[in-house]
Recover the amino acids of this structure.
């Protein structure tokens, strides 16, 4: 019934609507079945139209670059919304302040900051996600995270109401923020400090070199699988995994990276069930061996 309604309204909504689309190529793990609906709004108007029509009838998942998600093998029984070009503008507001659409990649925004002599966003050049994903995850590395540079977030709720929230009214945690899931981030304002772009560039290169030495590149992964258990132990999660899980542990094509034990990898054709089996196995082994209860960093979409 609801699918029929959506099909009828398809031509009226400003955006592209696809049915029974594979989700595999939209995430870094390269894992997952289909989504019942994939919606790519062409404008804020289109997004609001869709939310008003659909949000009370079915579930919604908002996808960024898919670098931190694990989809299920079964069809996602709802709409996956993917923001595109019209949500990826990056603009200079003043000498130190940037406003970026949430579909812009973190790499692009950090480049833009560098080109405009704004320092503070260098860490983003090491993270393969979008601005939207970075906000939701309070992403970070090298002792900097989104909360350190965010001034405000512009967003729309599932009723289609647009508003802006100042960052100092939001509680940020390690790899999460305390805002309801039923919000779609549209753009964000960031403030850095003025610095010479050559110095910024050198620092960005240094960070990327360190990161590439420590973590695997050019593989199908979603980055860190678990959060570092900062409230339970000083040890890093990769150390706990190394000391608790036998080398070479795998489930189907789901394996643990040799380079970084907290990066799980789809070697070729891993199913979601393989990756979940690996995750549960590692979680249990670490708990049995060290007493530490691991918490997922990657987001499971079901
Ligand atoms: C090789 C590799 C290295 C990585 N290194 C790091 C690192 O150093 N530090 C780090 O913190 N992370 C790292 N990550 C994880 C990941 O890149 C970050 O979490 C990233 O910020 C996620 O962004 P994304 O656009 O891919 O989000 P997605 O994976 O698409 O989604 C993640 C979450 O954000 C939500 N979301 C996305 N867009 C929006 C939006 N517009 N509005 C509301 N919610 C939204 C999704 O619903 C989901 O809950 C790494 C991942 C990989 C693959």
């Amino acid at each position: 019934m609801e699918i029929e309604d959506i099909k009828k309204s398809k031509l009226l909504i400003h955006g592209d609507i696809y049915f029974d689309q594979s989700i595999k190529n939209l995430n870094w793990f390269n894992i997952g079945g289909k989504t019942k609906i994939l919606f790519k709004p062409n404008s804020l108007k289109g997004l609001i139209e869709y939310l008003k029509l659909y949000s009370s009838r079915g579930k919604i998942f908002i996808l960024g670059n898919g670098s931190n998600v694990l989809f299920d093998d079964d069809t996602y029984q709802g709409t996956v919304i993917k923001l595109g070009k019209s949500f990826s503008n990056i603009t200079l507001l003043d000498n130190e302040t940037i406003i970026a659409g949430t579909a812009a990649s973190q790499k692009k925004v950090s480049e833009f900051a560098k080109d405009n002599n704004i320092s503070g966003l260098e860490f983003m050049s090491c993270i393969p996600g979008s601005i939207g994903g970075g906000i939701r995850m309070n992403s970070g590395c090298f002792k900097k995270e989104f909360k350190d540079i965010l001034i405000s977030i512009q967003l729309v709720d599932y009723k289609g109401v647009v508003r802006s929230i100042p960052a100092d009214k939001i509680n940020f945690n390690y790899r999460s923020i305390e805002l309801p899931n039923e919000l779609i981030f549209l753009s964000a304002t960031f403030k850095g400090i003025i610095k010479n772009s050559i110095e910024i560039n050198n620092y960005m290169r240094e960070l990327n070199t360190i990161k590439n030495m420590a973590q695997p590149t050019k593989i199908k992964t979603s980055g860190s699988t678990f959060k570092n258990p900062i409230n339970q132990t000083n040890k890093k999660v990769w150390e706990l995994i190394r000391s608790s899980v036998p080398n070479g542990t795998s489930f189907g094509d789901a394996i643990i990276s040799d380079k970084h034990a907290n990066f799980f990898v789809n070697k070729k054709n891993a199913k979601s069930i393989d990756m979940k089996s690996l995750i549960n196995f590692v979680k249990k082994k670490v708990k049995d061996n060290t007493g530490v209860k691991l918490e997922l960093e990657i987001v499971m979409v079901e």
